[in-house]
Description:
The structure holds two protein chains of two kinds. By secondary structure, chain A is mainly alpha-helical. Chain A has 14 helices and two strands; from the N terminus they run ααββαααααααααααα. Chain A has a two-stranded antiparallel ribbon with strand order 1-2. The two termini of chain A are 40 Å apart. By secondary structure, chain B is an alpha/beta fold. Helices cover 39% and strands 15% of the residues of chain B. Chain B has 14 helices and eleven strands. At the A-B interface, helix 2 and helix 13 of A face helix 1, helix 3, helix 4 and helix 13 of B.
Amino acid sequence: MSTLTAVRSSAEETRPRPAYWTTRRRDRLTGYLFIAPQLLGTVVFVLVPLVLVGWYSLHEWNVLADTFDFVGTDNYQRLLDDPKLPSVLRATLLFSAGLVLLNLALALLLAVLLNQKLRGTTVFRVLFFSPVVVSLVAWTIVWHFMLQSNGGINGLLDTIGVQGPNWLRSGGTAMAAVVVVQVFKNVGLNMVLFLAALQGVPRDLYEAARVDGASRWTAFRRITLPLISPTILLTSIITVVGSLQVFAQIAVLTQGGPGTSTTVLVYYLYQQAFQFHTFGYGATLSVLLFLIVLLLTVVQWHLRKRWVFHEQ
Amino acid sequence: MKARALIAATVLLGGLAACGSDSTSDGPLTLRMTTWSANEAHVKLFTEIAAEYKTTHPDVTVQFDALPFENYTTTLTTQIAGGNAPDLAWILEGSAPDFVSSGALAPLDGKVEKESDLVPAATKLWQADGKLAAYPFSTSPFGVFVNTDLVKDLPAGDEWTWENAMAAAAGAAKASGKQGLVVRDFDYKAWDNLASIFHGWGAEAWSADGRTCGFNQQPMVDAMTFIHKAIFTDKAMPGPGVAADFFAGESAMTITQISRASLLKEAKFKWTLVPLPAGPKGEYAVIGQGGLGVLKKGRNADAAADFLAFFTNEANSAKLAQFFPPPRRSQLTAATLAKSNPLLKPEQLQEVVIDGISTGVVKPSHRDSAEIGQAVRSALDPLWKADAQVKPVLDGVCAAIQPLLAR
């Protein structure tokens, strides 16, 4: 508003010469300046590192010996030959699948429950959303204490006479524990998105369905699900991509163990680059991660035509 | 609105430009030394030494940067990779071969005062081609701290064997409801700390030349069987995932280095320090080391080497001896050490420190220690269950690391 007034008054004063700063140019400059910080951030912290990672992946980089030698596709050959990679990819798949299924199912369930007109739903909404704003590492450290074999959860189980397993130290439960800790951390975000979508579904559709004799389940399946499908797509993309980036939880809770059962791709590349000092191979693993994320996103994007109601 | 956006953009660009500027100059300079100790008493002593140095070198300020111990080497190498190498750095014995052989450290020959006074056993790990690459400022034997409120009759003399020690730990744990013996920093991950036990069986992680795996050889199988039994059958050691801190009074005994004695200053329980118990192979000692080196990639390598010489000279070495047993033969006497270690008795210093350094074996180290260590850790994980079969697990460890050792 103030910009417009300023432009108008300055235009009146300098009528004889056509001003360089036309409204159009000014608006454009303002626009560019507004996106400049974000653009700068994207270039410096996303695009440049992206190109550099590709460049590093073609090199053998020994930080201690201070050598940086071009090795062509050697690192990619090593990737194909890496005996540990299959188990790393398996752990990654297990984590992502577990997280996405559990997270979306729970988020949708909570959203449907909290969408009812009942007393106290606001309190529950706040409760389920609050972990989203808690620091990830603090959240994970607290869970680490809880999941110790003499920690809070087993203490609780003990009071009802159940001897809990050593959650973070046995192969089967370690991955489940990491998944559940992550689900509880972020389920609130998806829940809020689903809640917003549910509230956008026109009530009269349900009334019409009821008149036609549809059960609640049929109404949910035939009306609710199709109408919130864009949100399901959005949340599944966010959750899948997020699940592939899991790091802090693994680093704090299991350090990839027991054995290598929770060594997911990001943790493995961190080990290679920062613990074993093979930055070149670490960069190659990042390229692999990038390609996986890209592929999954493209696949989901194309499937939207079949899944998502509004896209048809 | 526009003016604000412009200012914001300028500030951002200016900030980025400032980040990129280099601070190389002949004027006042700041040396940065990374350590893994944020212990107040340690930092106070370092700062005093730096302040004294400043009286003769007014231009030089030394800044001590304490990094978390768990990720020390990772953080250090990340700083080096990021072009932010410190000028001086502490180096853990485990990664000594990596740092020394890679040429990351500036040679120190001729820089260290009275180099001939250094005990050869202490400098062995820190030499490249016979030249000192880092100064082993801490050569610290492992000992057993015992909470004598919990362990009333500690086996002594010839009775101080691993069998008896574990029996005492198990008894104290059972009677008190607390934990028995804690191998400090082990936590079922940093397995190299178990060397303080398995050396008693004559076991080695790998051969002296570093090329043959020792995990599936008989001494290690026996030692690990003993440890497994102590954990899962006798309950003499806390199981995996059980946290217990000796220094907070939560366990009866702990194996750690004597530099931790300072944690007992305000202990609310009575304690003593004894050497490691005798194993089937008799008495033995295990040493953990810390080296201090000058990084070639630091900005002021010459000034850093000069400060290192001062930091480690005879006078300062004597001061550091209160926390870190010195590598200097002339200072390894009970009388000298007693002066700076008020918490320990002269006979404890003689038994644990001086005898330990002269006979001790350094904890396992190897090139690519992080990768090998990680492989051992993963392969050992199946051992930490009550029903584990020791020999097959240890065979698995060797299968995992043999290709890395042979590299």
